[in-house]
């Protein structure tokens, strides 16, 4: 509440929930230990039917692609569904430990992953981030795009 006061922000008490062990927020489940995917969102992916036509595939992928559905595509689709049902858990940052930053770029977008090593020296993701490139940025050379991703990620 002190931080809200310092930021000159006001809240409506009837819209607030206090002393909850975990809560759903913007598609995630937030607890004192972690931030993970909302199981309801995982359920939607799990229950999504196998696409039988292009329109249904677009509904799942959000892409406009021509395809032929074979056993290979079915296996890939099932694998994708399985991966999407595993709720990624984001670790809280520990500002006493070093961070690890991974960046990548393509012709259309750039992305970053921020992580840290836990006490067992296992890498834990703290945050994912991505954005589309502007029309001007799409004209950059590959090395310039890679540098842009690093600069954007640390900004």
From TrEMBL:
<protein>
    <submittedName>
        <fullName>20191_t:CDS:1</fullName>
    </submittedName>
</protein>
<dbReference type="InterPro" id="IPR043128">
    <property type="entry name" value="Rev_trsase/Diguanyl_cyclase"/>
</dbReference>
<feature type="domain" description="Reverse transcriptase/retrotransposon-derived protein RNase H-like">
    <location>
        <begin position="69"/>
        <end position="154"/>
    </location>
</feature>
<dbReference type="InterPro" id="IPR043502">
    <property type="entry name" value="DNA/RNA_pol_sf"/>
</dbReference>
<dbReference type="InterPro" id="IPR041577">
    <property type="entry name" value="RT_RNaseH_2"/>
</dbReference>
<dbReference type="Pfam" id="PF17919">
    <property type="entry name" value="RT_RNaseH_2"/>
</dbReference>
């Amino acid at each position: 509440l002190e931080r809200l006061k310092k930021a000159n922000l006001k809240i409506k008490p009837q819209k607030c929930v206090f002393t909850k062990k975990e809560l759903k927020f913007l598609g995630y489940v937030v607890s004192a230990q972690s931030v993970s995917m909302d199981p309801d969102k995982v359920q939607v992916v799990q229950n999504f039917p196998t696409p039988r036509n292009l329109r249904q595939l677009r509904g799942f992928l959000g892409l406009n692609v021509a395809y032929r559905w074979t056993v290979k595509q079915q296996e890939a689709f099932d694998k994708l569904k399985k991966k999407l049902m595993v709720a990624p858990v984001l670790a809280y940052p520990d500002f006493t430990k070093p961070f690890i930053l991974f960046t990548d770029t393509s012709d259309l977008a750039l992305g970053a992953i921020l992580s840290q090593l836990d006490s067992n020296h296992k890498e834990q993701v703290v945050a994912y981030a991505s954005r589309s490139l502007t029309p001007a940025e799409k004209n950059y050379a590959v090395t310039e795009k890679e540098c842009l991703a690093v600069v954007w990620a640390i900004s």
